[in-house]
Amino acid sequence: MTTTSPESAAAAAGETNDPIHIRRLELSDHERGFVALLSQLSTCPDLTASEFATRFAELAAQGDDHVILVAEDTSAPERRILATGCLFVERKFLRGGGKAGHVEDVVVDAAARGRGLGLRIVRRLVEIARDAGCYKVILDCTPELRAYYAKCGFVEKGVQMAVYF
Amino acid sequence: MTTTSPESAAAAAGETNDPIHIRRLELSDHERGFVALLSQLSTCPDLTASEFATRFAELAAQGDDHVILVAEDTSAPERRILATGCLFVERKFLRGGGKAGHVEDVVVDAAARGRGLGLRIVRRLVEIARDAGCYKVILDCTPELRAYYAKCGFVEKGVQMAVYF
């Protein structure tokens, strides 16, 4: 994927001064604030390195059916993760044995908002879903974020219902 | 699961006259109208036996992380599938490495509506999600179905956004 991504194309064209690197989650991102970033979205106690590695391996085993992208700030010594978003692919019987993409857990660090990092990640996730043959990509959000996701081509489709245990 | 399900409890209590059997999808359900039932929900061209078997195997490989329930009418000679619903479990990093249940593709045959089959399936899927340790179960629906899912304990949480390719 990397060789055909917009970032790679930009790099090939010499536009290499963008310090933000959008890439797939790596095991070492546990040390770059990935879990702390998620805590800005939802309840998210820290995970031990072992717990993180276990979940990372479970998700990596799903291959391209589960993609977590992160935006890394390569200009900072600690190379913090500033934004993330997830796509997973659901295989169905309907639509001729079709696939639906689900975008989840999109969050941008409070200090890095307004720079378009979330939009870059979501747009890339939509591209990945399309390239994987999904017939749609869906996500759930608060009503206030309708306009934000509209910038990535999303339109309102229904209501999200939930049961919390 | 079967030994502790409400259906089993009912059977143990002698209430065995219910011709509707709620169970997991089986390969042979391709011949019992499962795909035709899904076509009442969305675009759903028929699948060959081979295509159906391939997708069935892919989903079965996910074990208890992907459950499709069906309501089979055991009183009819052809034992048609009258309703179905799906649950898949998404593993996350947030919530302490938590799991979220997603309910998808709930449909009841037009001729069998009003008998509570969909509610029985959705309630069972919610039980399965809770037993699997999910911290929530979510689904997307049209606004008209809010009251229907409220009967299963769901409350409105947000809006669903979609991109169709």
TrEMBL record, chains A, B:
Organism: Panicum hallii var. hallii
SUBUNIT field: Homodimer.
Membrane-related topology note: Peripheral membrane protein
Enzyme Commission (EC) number: 2.3.1.4
A cellular component term, taken from the record's GO annotations: endoplasmic reticulum membrane
SUPFAM superfamilies given in the database record: Acyl-CoA N-acyltransferases (Nat)
GO biological process terms on file: N-acetylglucosamine metabolic process; UDP-N-acetylglucosamine biosynthetic process
Family under the similarity heading: Belongs to the acetyltransferase family. GNA1 subfamily.
Name the record gives this protein: Glucosamine 6-phosphate N-acetyltransferase
Key words of the record: Acyltransferase, Endoplasmic reticulum, Membrane, Transferase
Reaction(s) catalysed by this chain's protein: D-glucosamine 6-phosphate + acetyl-CoA = N-acetyl-D-glucosamine 6-phosphate + CoA + H(+)
